[in-house]
Amino acid sequence: MPACLWYLNFAPIDPENRRNKKRLGLFQAPRQDHRHCKEAQGKPMTEKDLVREFDEISAKFAAAREGLGQVIFGQEEVIELTLATLAAGGHALLVGAPGLAKTLLVTSVADLMGLSAKRVQFTPDLMPGDVLGSEVLEESASGAREFRFIPGPIFCQLLMADEINRASPRTQSALLQAMQELHVTVAGARHDLPAPFHVLATQNPIEQEGTYPLPEAQLDRFLLQINVDYPEEDAERRMLAATTGASTKKVEAAMSADDLIRAQALVREMPIGVQIVDAILALVRSARPVADAEERVKSMVAWGPGPRASQALSLGVRALALIEGRYAPSLDDVRRLAKPILRHRMALNFAARSEGLTTDDFIGELMAKSF
Question: Are 351 and 299 in contact (CB under 8 A)?
Answer without folding.
Answer: yes
